[in-house]
## 1
Amino acid sequence: RAKAAGRNNYQFFTTAMNTLVTERQYIETGLRQAIASNQLRLFYQPQIDISTGQVVGVEALIRWQHPELGLVAPDRFIPIAEEIDMIIPIGQWVLENALAQLAQWRKKGAKTLRMAVNLSAHQLRKDTIVADIINVLAQYQLGKGALELEITESVAMQYPEQNAKLLAELRQLGIELAIDDFGTGYSSLSYLKLLPLDRLKLDRSFVKDIENDPNDAAISAATISMSHELGLTVVAEGVENEAQLVLLSSMGCDLVQGYYFSKPLSADDCFRFIERNF
Ligand code: C2E
Ligand code: MG
Ligand code: MG
Ligand code: MG
């Protein structure tokens, strides 16, 4: 009896495994064709300066418009794209399209708007990354202060010395650098003094309950004052209500991003949002 049950479990397990492998292969195959099939989309989420209420930047967030799966979120395909090395062409596609969009919006009046782009570890390791970025900026005649790159702590700390050199080169070109999801990695704080950074993005996990949890409030307040002493500005991620905004504002937080202001929007909707406060 036990044997029969065991065998059944085993059969169930292999069936589940096969389904997983198939699904994974399905995503992989689709991803390899996603650019050529024109299935990638960028959404844009406004970043607001707390003290002026102005939209000073937008973050480009990728989605995959899949013919059968619908709109696929990045957490579902970016990790796979990294494993199969598709993140290099996809990352280049994001840079080109986000900066093309920025150039268009600047021509339409958003003269100082900044575009934030998420960069993966593999992109940072690509030997032509600096030249690639210079080329895209030149193609759209965008200068200093147009582009911000977001990297996570773990990516920043992978090769701290090489990164310091590379990021210094990028910063020399007027590209701004932000640490994404700050406070969620396992790294020490030492990279904050090693790397030439402009901004730190306080992770949503500290913001989502900040108005109720004194520990989240303490971590947020300490992060903001430390950042300011290091000469960095702070963006709070995932601000969803007024209480959170008021609290972050009282702590001196510089910028906010989150559903309270806007979800990530299509390009047209995002421009309408930006236009409201030229
Ligand atoms: P991230 O860079 O930390 O982006 C913030 C995520 O939080 C986005 O999820 C955004 O939609 C979501 N978010 C913003 N405000 C709120 C809020 O108020 N409440 C809640 N619950 N969520 C909020 P999304 O768009 O699904 O992106 C997930 C992650 O995928 C990003 O996290 C980033 O790590 C990655 N990603 C997105 N686009 C790209 C890309 O072009 N290249 C790379 N390498 N990674 C990307
Ligand atoms: Mg980001
Ligand atoms: Mg983030
Ligand atoms: Mg995040």
Note: Strands lie at 40-49, 55-66, 70-72, 114-118, 147-152, 176-182, 199-202, 233-236, 255-256.
## 2
Amino acid sequence: EKGGYDYFMLKEIAEQPKAVADTLLGRIDGSGSLTLDEVRIPPGVLREIDKVVIIACGTAFHAGLIAKYAIEHWTRLPCEVELASEFRYRDPILDAQTLVIAISQSGETMDTLMALRHAREQGSKVLAICNTNGSTIPRESDAVLYTHAGPEVAVASTKAFLTQLVACYLVALYLGQVRGTKWGDEIRAVIRDLSSISGAVDEVLGTMEPVRELARTLATKKTVLFLGRHVGYPVALEGALKLKELAYMHAEGFAAGELKHGPIALIEEDMPVVVVVPSPRGRSVLHDKIVSNIQEIRARGARTIVIAEEGDEAVVPYADHLVRVPATPTLLQPLVATVPLQVFACELATARGNEVDQPRNLAKSVTVE
Ligand code: M6R
């Protein structure tokens, strides 16, 4: 049932192009309009929403962090993202004008379930983004947008994450469509690129051998740091989480701009630092800033592992290892930039002799608070 792969995780990483395509299937029509008929929250209600709050745990929380950038940019609605385990204990401000999005692969995560119950008690509408048909979280929500990743067996979430991102982009675009915000050429281009993103994920998968080789050489390292900016920041957090849970290594993700506020003190000779570089097109200020960040850490001895778009030549002089990903609009880059980090963590876990599909101390679905 592992389809010829040694681990479910490898199989699930390889299934990502199809999972992404399946999640998009039937949801964007030929003219580039979104048809999310399954979202049973009436358009009239969505037009009245004045805030979006996303609740989730772990990898699903990272998908939520990325969704915030898309929702705020495409709809101009304020969006908060909160760890479900923290949410209801801080007396959050919720009302009938708040749309709460609960993201969960399993649909059974107790922290997320308790947070969504709290939101509904305050009168908010809850939309679940879930991978498991008929599970508790979608059953208790006002509406559900299913991700069509297929069953995910490995404890470390991979294809569920990519499809959660796709579902979040769809919801953000749908909110924009319903509310008539910013429906211009930029959105049309994003919809076009989203429709072909599965091919880009496939392309990344075809170039992963050097990443595997690199991972094997780092098996005795103690710490790996991950840096990103903008949507690359949650990607960095996700890369670090994967490494912790699979390789049992100390790993941390930082917003690259925070380096000089403390974390740069961690850098020592030959410490691997993975940097997720945003596209040099469009938001070039961001790009220039991260190139200086790479220079700064390299000057302090870091071994830089740079994930950058094809054709980005500015990073070449400062990259000890360069991983290329296809060009995408900035907001969609997590769909391609996360894949090398999954492969990296999986290979490091294998090199360290760890159980890839069943990491120690972890369960696939966390049904206790
Ligand atoms: O089933 P859920 O999406 O609600 O699970 C949330 C987290 O427990 C989950 O993403 C966890 O962080 C994964 N093991 C990460 O790979």
Note: The chain has a mean pLDDT of 95.
